[in-house]
Amino acid sequence: MDTNLQPTAISWPAVLAARPQLIADAHALELHDAWVTAEREFNANLGRPVSDVARYRVVDGVAVIPVSGALINRYDFIGEGSGYTSYPALTREVNRAAADPAIRGIVLAISSPGGNADGIIAPSAAIRAARAAKPVTALVGSIAASGGYWLAAQAGEIVLDNDLSQVGSIGVYTMHMDVSKLLERIGIDISVISSGRNKVDGHPFAPLPADVRASIQQEVDDLRLMFAREVSTGRPALTADLALATEARMFSAFNPRTGARPAIEEKLADRMGSLSDVVGSINRGRYPGRFMRKTGMTDVTREDHDRAVAAAREDGRVAGERAGREAAATRISSIMTSDEAKANPKLASHLAYKTETSVEDAKEMLAAAGPAVAEPKADDKKSESQTYEQRKAAVGGEGYVDTGNGSGTKATAKAGWGKAVAAANKGLGPGARN
């Protein structure tokens, strides 16, 4: 092993290694740096309120919101030379610009290789909602890859700033770190003790089993399909099938060998243009997005604006509820189709539909409960509910003797009817009648 690689592997945050990521692989270490910086800033500013001042610049009435560096679902990075962008900060600034009647349009100035998958739904929904109220353009500087492209695709148009601009990487990846050989080399043995068959799937202290690898592969495949569908929602011309067919390739603004414009020809971008071009188009009412006003934005009344913002917020709320329903359906399905549910389907149904128990916790509870106890047979229930007279009549003149187990048996009264009745009365208790 190259010992020079050990510090990087050891220091890689577990939260990044264990989850699918939306970032161009060549930029993965940028995500690591962003996360470490975010943790440091979060701890240093714990308890301090987030600034309520707009953190975007305004150019001729158009808000220019920076989306730069790695995208992380942590703390409060956006612009200001940080080099990183956090989803909470981006969501807040997009909503702020959409709600400001003095802002005619929004430009997302994107230069990002992507980042975390967790958290991207909120800014994505905010961009689509803002687009319902006013023009939103994604202006790609150097790169809009993976998660960066996911966000760009929600704008009304994607404009490439220069011939070196790149877009794409519609894909997902994760990784598994096997540090068992390193630990063996330095004399450390790890004993993993768990409860629940899948509790420690993918832990880093042993090679990855084939079935666990297949499960992780399914997770990233499903997220890539979701990625493609989200792109096609924002860009109908780029269908989900076309997005998947790119196989996560990057597309450049210009091919010097052929003179072609691959990103535009493959429908991942709309045109070339600078910031001044985009701002001018918005102010002249020539924005080609879905929600363009032909007469421009200058004649929009406050009432028009308020209605558009209300509609945008409603779209955002509906998108959030849809995401919640999809997550709930996935949780229910994962519980009900698990191996643990097969032995106790009734308990599984209760946990899936009547509680908010997580999939992992539900599996552990089902495993601990074991197989369900069988219901009493219909005949057993019937015999338990019979009265003394009914049971006596059922055995006729031979007499009825309760054997003590509640089921009753026929028995020949060896000592005569009187002894049989006495025995029956004794078994039935003080409430019995002759």
UniProtKB/TrEMBL annotation:
The UniProt keywords, alphabetically, are: Hydrolase
Which portions of the chain have biased composition (kind: Basic and acidic residues)?
376-392
Where does the record place the Peptidase S49 domain? 130-282
Q: Where is this region: Disordered?
A: 370-434
This enzyme's EC code(s)? 3.4.21.-
| Skewed-composition ranges (Low complexity) | 408-427
Q: Name one Pfam family in it.
A: Peptidase_S49
The record's GO molecular-function terms, alphabetically, read: hydrolase activity
Q: Which family does it belong to?
A: Belongs to the peptidase S49 family.
Full protein name = S49 family peptidase
- Lineage, please? Bacteria, Pseudomonadati, Pseudomonadota, Alphaproteobacteria, Hyphomicrobiales
